[in-house]
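LAB NOTEBOOK - FOLDING QUEUE
OPERATOR: T.R.
BATCH SIZE: 2
PURPOSE: Compare the predicted structure-token outputs for two unrelated chains run back to back under identical settings.
PRIORITY: normal
REVIEWER: second-year student, initials M.K.

ITEM 1
FIELD SEQUENCE / FIELD STRUCTURE:
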Amino acid sequence: MGHSGSLAPRLGARQEPVAAAATLPVASALVSRSPSRSPIRRSPEIHGGQPLFAGTTVPVQALLDHVRKGGDEAGFLVRYPELEAAAVKAVLSLALEQLIQRERVAAAPPQGSLLPRYDDQGVLVNAAELRASLVTHRKVLCPACRVLVFRRWPEGWDAHAEHRCSGITAIEPAARKREFKRRYGHLFK
């Protein structure tokens, strides 16, 4: 395998699926997947329990270090021929999934500083971007379906949301109203 003896497991050492957060900051993002399906394992007898590629003694940290230095998957596989490309892809995929989950960005609040935009018939067309004081009592294009024009916002929003608005995905009338109110609640005083 071309590696120093320090990477060899002790005889009888048992690898456990990774189920708890790792002590390494980057590796801790990699360990939340179901233990039976995780491409990462750890054993207290091998490398002090740090995360390893399942079925090997190759630390996951080696892949992270390789990538940080600008290395690619092919180069890593040359350095660690005991690994399969699928295992490396699975670990990289898991890392990206965890990063995406951790880095979710909440929807930004509507920008109250935007100016109203009207079409040639005097209908407010950018209500979703505005605050309630700029929308109330005006002719407004429905911010969800962008088909219906409310003659005097917010009059009639509830019946429209319950039964006709094609921009709402819920099926039950009460759920449709809740979805509309959740998405456009900032347009109500």
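ITEM 2
FIELD SEQUENCE / FIELD STRUCTURE:
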Amino acid sequence: MSDPASALGHAFSLDEDPAATAQRLLADQLDGALGVLESFARDRGRAIHEFRKHGKRLRAILRLLRPGWSARVYGAWNETLRHAASRFSEARDGYVWEETLEFLRGHAGEGDCDWEATRDWLRERRQREWPDERLDRRAVEVENDVKKLLIRLEQDDFTKIAWKDLIHAVGRGYRRGEREFVMARETRDPAHFHEWRKRTKYGAVQFALVRELAPDDLDRRSREAARLGSLLGRHHDIAVLEELLRQSPEKEMFHPLLVSAEEVRAGLDAEALALGELLYDEDPSAFVNRLKRAWRDRSTPVG
């Protein structure tokens, strides 16, 4: 689990025009994504993983900028990023299948599961569905998407990006994350845990980006959200693997593994929900109002 602040390099500052910071943040992540894609063939699985991390940071930043952008500009950025991420989403799952299997093996023990046979089955399926040539074509398409956004970075208007809008966007994300947390807690449905995961990962980035308003509190929330996001990511990967195995014609062979996977995922449920209680320990309105007061106090000249 990487520290969000370290991965971003810098954050918004009350001493700097937020428009300039926003452009620099986007440029850093786009350049990083492009660098990953330029060496894609060296390690395709690793490249997909690293690209998706840049993509998630970019989408978290976009949500902060949304109030200061026109609907047209925000929509163009969001759609391009969404499309780029979707090109790799199924292939990403394929690379994670084996890693998730090893995680389950470490937590469930040998038992009655045929781990080696399952690993070979997963690897053969991934290689059949996602041969290197197909992935390389996708990488070229994604690289073109990133280059389009680098052009937009020079053309789009950032001048209306303001601190009050950043605070509003952080509060909106916090409120949405809390809502998904409550839904996951009440339903225990993997789909709700998946939605909660996305909001949590955005929150980890957004708290880090506006940390200057309340450094101790927002640094804590960013770290907790990053830890929770990793946990929910593992939860999602197990749920995806379970679904794949249940739909397989060989599903009877995987029955012991499916039982173990469900037990491990239930344990992750409990751990994630306990972390959620810590992360969403403040009413969303009170949280936003506290950030607004901090901004006004820091922005108002003394004397």
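REVIEWER COMMENT (ITEM 2): The chain has two domains: 14-92+131-159, 162-303.
FOLLOW-UP: none requested
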